[in-house]
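Homework help board

Subject: predicted structure for assignment chain

Our instructor gave us this sequence and asked us to write out the predicted structure in token form, then describe one feature. I got the tokens but I'm not sure how to describe them. Can anyone check?
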Amino acid sequence: MSDELSVARNAAINLPRVSLLPKINTPTYETSSIQYYFPKKVHDQFFEKNNNAISYFEISDDIAYLKWQGLITKKASTQKQLYFIYGTITNEIGTLPSVKDSTFAAFRWMPHIGSTGYSLIHKDNWNDVVFKETEVDSNNAKPNYIIVQIPEEE
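My token output:
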């Protein structure tokens, strides 16, 4: 598969974005990391977690359409739909796809150290996953060009 999947995923998170929702939630800016979750071997749909907001996008005709969004509280939760999210999801807008049994390629961008953490996660291991870290080439170290190849996904 070489690096075609990572190139397609980087393109996906950089496409123009259009919301199909009546309103959108604005994330807070408490920390400096953004996480992306793509279903395994998929590049045309993804979740983006930006501090306390999580958004779901589907790609069509070179546009990333915002289909669902919610805010994440620190209150413990028993929600299982997005098993990889700590906390309770509130203020949901739109339609969340069914992903509760999916395996995800997870990416955590940390701009303050120029590093991307990555791993494959699924509902049975998500809480124990250790993200592998890789430095992003300084020529490519932009907040939205941070998806790397995951060898275990090939």
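Reply (TA_rk): Your tokens look well-formed. For the description, you could write something like this. The chain has one helix and nine strands. That's the kind of observation they're looking for.
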